């Protein structure tokens, strides 16, 4: 099963305007 991992630029683990969200495909 491929899980879409979302990595944030900052340490906050939630989506904010200051946090640019980057979707990364991980095996």
From TrEMBL:
Origin superkingdom: Eukaryota
Residue spans crossing the bilayer: none
GO biological process: translation
GO cellular component, one term: ribonucleoprotein complex
Pfam families listed in its UniProt record: Ribosomal_L34e (PF01199)
Keywords (A to Z) from UniProt: Ribonucleoprotein, Ribosomal protein
A single GO molecular function term of this UniProt record: structural constituent of ribosome
Region Disordered: start-end pairs: 1-27
InterPro entries: Ribosomal_eL34
Entry similarity comment: Belongs to the eukaryotic ribosomal protein eL34 family.
Descriptive protein name: Uncharacterized protein
